[in-house]
Amino acid sequence: MDLINQLEWRYATKKFDSEKKVSPADLTYLKRAIQLSPSSYGLQLYKVLVIEDTAIREKLKPVSWGQNQITDCSHLFVFCIPKEYDPKDVDEYIKLTSQVREVALDQLEGYGSFMKTKLGEQSTEELATWMGHQPYLALSNLMIAGASLGIDVCPMEGFESEAYDEILQLKEQNLTACVIGTVGYRDQEDTSQNQAKVRKPMDLLFEDL
Ligand SMILES: Cc1cc2nc3c(=O)[nH]c(=O)nc-3n(C[C@H](O)[C@H](O)[C@H](O)COP(=O)(O)O)c2cc1C
After folding, report:
1. Which domains does the chain have, with CATH numbers?
2. Distances 164 to 78, 113, 171, 175, 182 between C-alpha atoms, Å
3. Which of 65, 156, 178, 183 to probe ligand 1 with, by most ligand atoms within 8 A of CB?
4. Is 1 a residue whose pLDDT tops 90?
5. Which phi and psi angles does 47 have, rounded to 5°?
């Protein structure tokens, strides 16, 4: 299947086959796709919880609009972002770049200061909005990588972020739940998979100048 066929194959799975589990090898592949996702300045200001534990997922379901995907999927991916931006994250990124690329720290200081200055110019609200955009590209890569393996991923915003923070003890880590993805295999009886895709026609979606 080429990429377009895979994107036509995927859909927002409503009913997962709760008997089917994603293999450890495939999970590693999906995690790698997330790890390779681009992010603003390369900072990757998010952490992803991969939850298989059924007891935790039972607790999360009522605060996820009661959606069955939470408990029926194989693994629940919770994309978390910092509650507050911390300039130390820029320092960590610079340190990592220095190690990976074998470049002296002082050669990277200018770039670090540039990032800190730019981010320092933004209000707390602007920073929160900016950080909240970042995991969506990683979620998108997760969906595409999943489709390439015949694994279903439903992107989901239908959950109470504060309740997730409480149940998953995210505040203690200065994190908050941003967006989630339920990962697994579609139930053959899920009628949503047979529905035609509703998409804007090309001439409305694009304007060629
Ligand atoms: C950011 C985001 C949040 C979504 N939240 C939910 C959700 O909470 N529950 C759900 O069943 N589908 C959710 N969806 C799925 C969309 O409704 C679905 O992607 C859209 O209708 C297009 O259908 P398709 O993905 O099957 O092609 C979400 C999709 C996105 C991108």
Report:
1. 3-7+20-91+123-205 (3.40.109.10)
2. 9, 34, 10, 10, 15
3. 156
4. no
5. -135, 145
